[in-house]
Amino acid sequence: MAAFRIFQLLLINLIFYTAVIAAGRDFYGILGVSKSANTNAVKKAYRMLAKQLHPDKNKDDPEASQKFQDLGAAYEVLSDPEKREMYDRCGEECLKKDGMMNNNDPFASFFGDFGFHFGGESQQEREAPRGNNIMMDLSVTLEELYSGNFVEITRNKLVIKPAKGTRKCNCRQELVTRNLGSGRFQMTQQTVCSECPNVKLVNEERLLEVEVEPGMVDGQEIKFFAEGEPHTDGDAGDLILKIRTQPHRIFERIGDDLYTNITISLQDALIGFKLDLTHLDGHKVTILREKVTKPGAKIRKKGEGMPNYENNNLYGTLYITVDVAFPEKDFTAQEKEAIKELLQQSSVNRIYNGIRGL
């Protein structure tokens, strides 16, 4: 009986592993995300792992190229809703049969900041001419800087394409010596060029995807290598995007802290109040006061500021300044007496220098 039970378990395991092999690679496992992960989570996981697993960074690992190809295939499938649905239904083999696996390189338009320069280039390569960098502002909301987001930008870019004929290239100034006879020589400087295949500049539309990471700050740069101005005899420059925060209706950011104002009634200022403030990601911050609140009072909410860019588990402080709205009606003599009786407060007539605080 025990032997039969063991045989059953072995048979079940064999069937399971055969199914896994038939289904192809585990793309969720390769990216380290759950099956319920949304597209943004897939993109974020790919961006992080692509930097770690790039072959240029793992030259001692003989499997580096294969790991990187597996990572690209996982991103290609799980970032595409149609491919992902088919993969979830019947695995990688179904995608291959339907011709839906094209193995494109996601680096072609993904995120920026993916230049890999780990040494090994020659002096000549380092001195190759480059096109100009392009600097652009990327306008983002405070909500995007709080939660993170992926932004698609479309730009028209000049791309170098082959053309008929040849052209002069690699032009340089050289000293040429002429023998004038009788021991006399003349040295002149002239331009010397090489003959290269001709090229033309063609305008192409490029779709770039930028990750706005939580906690980024104004002026922070995101670089797309070789997406700047082209150079016919060298490499293209870079496209550099600078973060620019749009003004917000409720919050003001200073460092990792957030500042806002609330207005309450005089009644609430005297007897206390409860107020729910909607934060940048939609969660509620409850402000509860059970005592007198003076105009200009500041309420601190630790951990309710912006996420820290270096460590998203750390958050700044939310500072709330309270304004008090006084009644606009005129009180009757009877009401005034009732207020005096209720407050039991003597008149305070203090005159002082409020600017210097003396």
Automatic annotation (TrEMBL):
Q: Which UniProt keywords apply?
A: Glycoprotein, Signal
Q: What are the recorded GO MF terms, alphabetically?
A: misfolded protein binding; unfolded protein binding
CDD domains named in the record:
DnaJ (cd06257), DnaJ_C (cd10747)
Location of the J domain: 26-91
- Single Gene Ontology BP annotation: protein folding
Q: Which segment of the chain is annotated as a signal peptide?
A: 1-22
What is the name attached to this protein's record? Answer: J domain-containing protein
Q: Which PROSITE patterns match?
A: DNAJ_1, DNAJ_2
Q: What is the lineage of its organism?
A: Eukaryota, Metazoa, Ecdysozoa, Arthropoda, Hexapoda
Instruction: Output a single Gene Ontology CC term carried by this record.
Output: endoplasmic reticulum
Biological source species: Cotesia glomerata
